[in-house]
Amino acid sequence: GAVVSQHPSWVICKSGTSVKIECRSLDFQATTMFWYRQFPKQSLMLMATSNEGSKATYEQGVEKDKFLINHASLTLSTLTVTSAHPEDSSFYICSAPLPLYDLPHPYGYTFGSGTRLTVV
Amino acid sequence: QQPVQSPQAVILREGEDAVINCSSSKALYSVHWYRQKHGEAPVFLMILLKGGEQKGHEKISASFNEKKQQSSLYLTASQLSYSGTYFCGTESMTTDSWGKLQFGAGTQVVVTP
């Protein structure tokens, strides 16, 4: 089945440093990737949508300069948390539409395994 | 706007049934259901498209009432493996919402032996 590989699975970084999270679609082309953030015991909140070859669109309240998204190819999207602070500590998950060839709408969405970011 | 999920949590004994509800104030194109185990990413269960269909996956089924913009997930004869947090994700009819899922707060399901 369609798999999105997300790395790293966890990262601990010092306050003020930047962290890059990668999501790769392994056996399909992901022209779109959604990035979510999940705080403990809370729901997934959509942060931004990345589209291959164009600028990402951010949800209201998400700082574009802090969460840099790059979708340079059909199989790779990256999220860079710049100048990370403890309040950025969270579970970050990417998701891509599952390919479906006989309907105009994606059947579902496949998620990466998530990255637990801890900023100390 | 996030859909409203209920109940927040449910504790079941193995073999019992449960219903999880998801409602939205927006006109929906689709409702998705996911299950997440602690520390893991959500796993796709099923999608229901506009049209009021009902679907099933083993002993887990769901319905979508598009008149009420509500979906229900039915856990039948629950198994220990059903434990986890269930999220509904809704996709509204507006073009700028295509593919964007708004997730409910989740329903924690605990199945005990």
Can you tell me about this structure?
Chain A has no helices and eleven strands. Chain A has strands at residues 4-7, 10-13, 19-25, 32-38, 44-51, 57-58, 67-73, 76-81, 90-97, 109-111, 115-119. In chain B, the strands form two sheets. In chain B, strands 2, 4, 5, 9, 10 and 11 form a six-stranded mixed β-sheet that branches. In chain B, strands 1-3-8-7-6 form a five-stranded antiparallel β-sheet, with no helix packed on it. Chain B is globular and about 45 Å long. The model of chain B has no long low-confidence stretch (mean pLDDT 88). Chain B has strands at 4-6, 9-13, 18-23, 28-36, 43-49, 54-57, 60-65, 70-75, 84-92, 102-103, 107-112. By secondary structure, chain B is mainly β. Classes of the chains: A mainly beta (120), B mainly beta (113). Chain A binds chain B through residues 6, 32, 34, 42-46, 49, 93, 95, 97-98, 105-114, 116, and chain B through 2, 29-30, 32, 34, 39-44, 46-47, 49, 87, 89, 99-106.
What oligomeric state best describes the polypeptide chains here?
heterodimer
Q: How many individual helices of chain A? A: 0
Number of strands of chain B: 11
Query: Approximately how much beta-strand content do the residues of chain A carry?
Result: over 45%
* Secondary-structure-derived class of chain B: mainly beta
**Biggest chain pair interface:** A-B, 24 and 24 residues
Estimated helix fraction of chain A: under 10%
Major beta sheet of chain B, specifics? Answer: 6 strands, mixed
Distance between the ends of chain A: 37 Å
SS elements, strand count of chain A: 11
User: Main beta sheet of chain A, described?
Assistant: 7 strands, mixed
N-to-C SSE string of chain B, H for helix and E for strand: EEEEEEEEEEE
Strand content of chain B: over 45%
The overall pLDDT average of chain A reads 89
Distance between the amino and carboxyl termini of chain B:
37 Å
Summed up, the helix count of chain B is 0
Which series of helices and strands of chain A comes N to C? EEEEEEEEEEE
Rg over alpha carbons of chain B: 13 Å
What is the structural class of chain A?
mainly beta
Poorly predicted regions of chain B are none
